[in-house]
Amino acid sequence: MARELLNTLYVTTQGSYVHTDHETLKVEVDGETKLQVPVHHLGGVVCFGRVMVSTAAITQCAQEDRALVFLTEHGRFIARMVGSTSGNVL
Fold it and tell me: Contact at 8 Å (CB) between 51 and 16?
């Protein structure tokens, strides 16, 4: 039986920029690509400190039900965004 485990992308470099490039998320620092990973391989993205995320990347994560979490540089929780939920809330 084969199964895919969900992975989390941690972006810790200050001044990083996360944006989409077709079906992938690309992490750039000072205009240089540091990482490019397919969105379907990710379970979520965690951003520490001063990390910019494009609107397109936020939208793609929401549409594919990937969590996007923002923390301070030291790890204090700021916000969490998750795609739509379905089913009865009761």
Answer: yes
